[in-house]
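Figure 2 data, in text form.
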Amino acid sequence: MSVTTKPLARLLNRGTLAVLLFAGLAWAGAAGALWVGQEHLLFKPVPLPPDVRLSDEPDVSERFVEVPGARLSVLELRLQDPKAKSAI
């Protein structure tokens, strides 16, 4: 009994190769789109009115940082006794 070995190109017909090529290109396109748009996907900028307070908690203070073309709001979180709330 003789076993004939066929090259991979003969085993896979053109339709299978086309499907694999299309799937690879679709995956590469989706990965590229996520890489390019990841900042917008994670940090969608939503301008708020200037009088909106971000937090009313007593241990949170809000400060502002002036940058060219904008005024950024910074929240400073403070614990009264940080050593007492250790996770260890």
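Caption note: The chain has a mean pLDDT of 80.
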